[in-house]
Amino acid sequence: MDRRKFIRHSSLLGIVGTGLAACNVTDELFQTNEKCAPNILSFAERRHWLSSFSCNIEQWFRPIPFLDRINAAKALGFSAIEIWNPHQVKQGKSPNAIAQRAIDLNMRITSYSPGAPNFADPNNEKVFKRWLDVAIEAGKALNVSNFNLTGHKKIDGLTTQEMIKNYTRMLKWAAPRLESENMVATVEPYNPWNHKGHFIYGKEPALSICREVNSKSIKLNWDFFHMQRTNGNLITNLEEGFDQVEYIQLADAPGRNQPGSGEVAYGHILTRLRELGYQGFIGAEFFPKDKNALKAASDLAYLAKSVSLHPPRF
Ligand SMILES: O=C(O)C(=O)CO
């Protein structure tokens, strides 16, 4: 990236020039300038209370080049990020480039989503098998042992039961390979409002699939946003599915912005999550409300502070 561009982006984020610059048009567009933002936790407090969360840099900081979003997340106080397709060359991504930037900034990568082919389709069996190798190699480069599976679009001519059967069969095939690599692939159920045309929505059938595969390497990515939109009843459902949960993500509903912007009582939920024994990161997979990243980070930190959320343990 050329220097002028870097300085422009960095200033937007308060990396260069920090909050001392006067508020300007870009701050209004992409509000991260602390001077413009009342009721914002200080950087030190944010950094402390954000330590449980992993910033989804696919949904945050969308106007800026991909790798620089890692700097942006750090500048807001995050110590971890999650990503989607690490091979998207057009976006300036490659597993090695992402890993290097994360290492340079001492940022951890907690999950990646390498764009699984639709493996409920028996015609995709070979593609899926080749893809699994690529996904595993990406994880090694990124230094992260869990990745997210989607690949559950409806297929014309197949019943839901048939699609689930094919999907489960491929996971049973993948499980021993993943176990030998000490990696975990997570099934992520979506919700029918934001993702039309899938066959895995909400708690069931994702939970049954994982129970049937019965492997420490095939677990759930439990995204409270999708769960709320599909099933509601968040605490009871979490308790029932918790034995299969590997990774957690959140967003408020229905807007998919930060907690506090919608209908979900996240204070209770995060408290129960830690009581149940979840010790990992929580993916902040949402769009900062009004594109105000600083406010979103501060709101998230306030939430953690309000319930004294203890940081992940490793
Ligand atoms: O694409 C989505 O909605 C996701 O939740 C991916 O993790």
TrEMBL record:
EC identifiers of the protein: 5.3.1.22
Limits of the Xylose isomerase-like TIM barrel domain: 71-303
Class of enzymatic activity (EC top level): isomerase
Keywords recorded for this protein, A-Z: Isomerase
Molecular-function GO terms, alphabetical: hydroxypyruvate isomerase activity
Highest taxon, organism lineage: Bacteria
PANTHER family: ISOMERASE (PTHR43489)
Protein name: Hydroxypyruvate isomerase
Organism taxonomic ancestry: Bacteria, Pseudomonadati, Pseudomonadota, Gammaproteobacteria, Alteromonadales
